[in-house]
Design brief:
Elements lengths: L3 H14 L3 E2 L4 E2 L6 E6 L4 E6 L9 H13 L6 E6 L12 H6 L4
Parallel strand pairs: 4-5
Antiparallel strand pairs: 1-2, 3-4
Length: 106
């Protein structure tokens, strides 16, 4: 069960991740459906579970560092761990309507 502070911080982390863009697609990672979850643990430790559009994505390191940096800037965050997972596999259906429109798919 999350405390009210943890719930607020979770929302703040998700909001800040909307400013992290996939450099190849030019769409933020939240709208792309790449962020699978954010967990805020005790003492401001944050875990972000995400995926990439392909397992061989050449932007893997750059994107995970961007996620770490964005979340670390938030007050109340003491550390950030990014876990890249491949299940479930990402597909274009995971994108928001906004992302689909940006990419001309709507």
């Amino acid at each position: 069960m999350y405390t009210e502070e943890q719930q607020q911080l979770t929302g703040q982390v998700m909001s800040c991740l909307e400013h992290v863009y996939d450099p190849e697609l030019g769409v933020n990672i939240v709208d792309l459906g790449l962020v699978y979850g954010v967990q805020v643990q005790d003492e401001g430790r944050v875990k972000v579970q995400m995926t990439l559009t392909t397992p061989g994505c050449p932007m893997h390191d750059m994107m995970t560092r961007s996620v770490e940096r964005a979340a670390e800037e938030l007050p109340g965050v003491s550390s950030v761990m990014v876990e890249v997972v491949w299940e479930p596999a990402w597909s274009p259906q995971m994108m928001s309507d906004k992302a689909k429109a940006q990419l001309g798919m709507a």
